[in-house]
């Protein structure tokens, strides 16, 4: 069993920043499909999408010292991804009118930067944010979430439920 397998993304980034290069491999394997899909949906050319995808992980490597572990890793890598796509489109002189704006409470788009941003900026506590990201963006089951959060499975369900209720309330109040 891989010693890094059960670490959170944020813990893996800390290890990577400390020189544990295997932590990067775990992050890459964990997120490569999601990031590639994110890019591919926005760039219809497979060669360009592959180039952008490689640039994202190169940029992650080069800017790893800038990562702040108090924020979600997924938000950070999707920000890198979004910026790489925008830079590509600007270079190609393609007008980008807007990025996906399809976030609806209860139907979190698994690769939506906006959904991650809404969670990060919400008034949820750190465990609620982490639980929602694990459940809806990393598609983890409650057993895994409970192990990562170091709580019982029933309490992990409660944390996710409470987080969704708070998000709904915030959404309705706006």
Structural commentary:
The chain is mostly helical. The chain has 2 domains: 1-99, Rna Polymerase Sigma Factor, Chain: A; 102-174, Arc Repressor Mutant, subunit A. The chain is 67% helix and 0% strand. It contains 8 helices and no strands. The chain has helices at residues 9-17, 21-42, 46-62, 73-91, 113-121, 126-137, 142-149, 153-173. Helix 2 (21-42) packs across helix 4 and helix 3 crosses helix 4. It is globular and about 45 Å long. The N and C termini lie far apart (46 Å). The model is unreliable at 94-111 (pLDDT under 50).
List keywords for this structure.
174 residues; mainly alpha; Rna Polymerase Sigma Factor, Chain: A; Arc Repressor Mutant, subunit A; 0% strand
Helix content: 55-70%
Q: In terms of per-residue confidence, which ranges show pLDDT below 50 for 5 or more consecutive residues?
A: 94-111
Shape: globular
The percentage of residues in β strands lies in under 5%
Total helical segments: 8
The third-level CATH topology of the largest domain is Rna Polymerase Sigma Factor, Chain: A
Beta-strand segment tally: 0
Distance between the termini: 46 Å
């Amino acid at each position: 069993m891989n010693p890094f397998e059960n670490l959170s993304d944020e813990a893996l980034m800390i290890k990577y920043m400390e020189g544990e290069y295997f932590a990067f491999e775990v992050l890459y394997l964990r997120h490569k499909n999601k990031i590639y899909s994110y890019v591919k949906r926005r760039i219809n050319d497979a060669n360009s999408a592959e180039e952008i995808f490689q640039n994202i992980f190169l940029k992650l490597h080069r800017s790893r010292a800038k990562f702040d572990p108090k924020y979600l890793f997924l938000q950070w890598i999707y920000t890198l991804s979004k910026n790489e796509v925008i830079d590509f489109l600007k270079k190609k002189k393609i007008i980008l009118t807007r990025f996906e704006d399809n976030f609806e409470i209860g139907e979190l788009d698994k690769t939506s930067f906006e959904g991650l941003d809404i969670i990060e900026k919400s008034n949820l506590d750190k465990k609620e944010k982490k639980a929602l990201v694990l459940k809806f963006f990393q598609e983890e089951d409650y057993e895994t979430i409970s192990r990562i959060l170091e709580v019982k499975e029933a309490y992990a369900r409660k944390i996710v439920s409470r987080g969704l209720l708070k998000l709904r309330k915030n959404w309705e109040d706006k």
